[in-house]
Specification:
Blueprint: E1 7-11, E2 17-22, E3 27-30, E4 35-38, E5 42-47, H1 57-69, E6 76-81, E7 87-92, E8 97-103, E9 110-113, E10 118-122, E11 125-131, H2 135-140, E12 146-152, E13 158-164, E14 167-172, E15 177-180, E16 185-189, E17 193-198, H3 202-207, E18 213-218, E19 221-226, H4 230-245, H5 254-262
Antiparallel strand pairs: 1-2, 2-7, 3-6, 3-10, 4-7, 5-6, 8-13, 9-12, 9-16, 10-13, 11-12, 14-19, 15-18, 16-19, 17-18
Length: about 260
């Protein structure tokens, strides 16, 4: 069976949520903890599998295990409209950013995205594993050997990803290459070639502040980027909290100001 055809509205500016309108008997699947509110007649249920129909106990456990490997929860949560009129349900991500709506049919029926990017999708969309075959990409690509693969049986289905900060969409032509910070890559079409590249120059490696590697994506295909990866935000918060914990030493001194200039604060 194919994915349900759903209507949606994205609300907010820098901290967005998606409101999904379901016809009777339609349903949406979401990551655990993403739900914001439910209209009457919207009922919630949990399942081991995103596939419609039976796949056996071991098949369901295997699918649930794949989700855990990709960073999702063991159980998937369904929200179905069991009433006789159209009803709404809303979902929001746990940190500031934008909701990215993607129709799989417009991207050859498949999207590959980073772990934890999945927010919700129409019933019928499946989350699988996309292994990185290149050893270098697995060790240094920022997301390890495993990414998420979003597909559906008939090639169509509405998917919603979450990206930190502002979202940038780039469409690359054949052979066109873009170098990206490894944490800023949200997702890409399956036609995109994903690899890593060393930062040139010893001074750039030591003092450039961008790490030792870029992610390189080569077209043809579409890529989605984020301006604020959660890891970058978390590092800033931890750094600021450490300064507060030490009593803010050096914050008001000349030496503290010099070091703040050096590290860009």
């Amino acid at each position: 069976m194919g994915a349900d055809i759903i209507d949606y509205t994205i609300i907010g500016d820098d901290m967005q949520a998606v409101i999904i309108t379901l016809d009777p008997d339609e349903a949406v699947v979401a990551e655990a903890g993403a739900m914001m509110y439910l209209d009457p007649d919207i009922e919630m249920a949990t399942s081991l599998t995103m596939k419609q129909g039976g796949s056996g106990v071991f098949g369901k456990l295997f699918e649930a295990g794949k989700r855990v490997v990709t960073g999702e929860s063991f159980f998937i949560t369904y929200f179905a409209n069991e009433g006789r009129v159209r009803r709404d349900c809303a979902f929001a991500a746990p940190y500031p950013g934008h909701v990215v709506p993607i129709e799989l049919a417009e991207h050859n029926g498949e999207i590959i995205c980073q772990k934890d990017a999945f927010l919700c999708a129409a019933r019928g969309v499946e989350i699988g594993i996309a292994f990185q075959r290149r050893l270098g990409v697995g060790f240094f690509g920022g997301e390890g050997f495993i990414l998420q693969r979003l597909t559906s049986d008939d090639g169509h289905g509405q998917v919603f990803l979450h990206a930190g900060g502002t979202t940038v969409r780039r469409t690359l032509g054949p052979g066109e290459t873009l170098r990206v910070d490894t944490g800023c890559l949200v997702g890409f079409e399956k036609s995109i070639n994903y690899d890593i590249q060393f930062v040139k120059g010893i001074k750039n490696k030591l003092f450039g502040g961008e790490g030792l590697f870029y992610a390189t994506v080569t077209g043809p295909g579409t890529v989605w980027l984020q301006t604020l990866p959660f890891s970058r935000l978390a590092n800033r918060v931890i750094s600021a909290a450490s300064g507060l914990g030490s009593g803010g030493k050096g914050e008001g001194s000349v030496l503290g100001g010099v070091f703040n200039l050096i590290d860009g604060r």
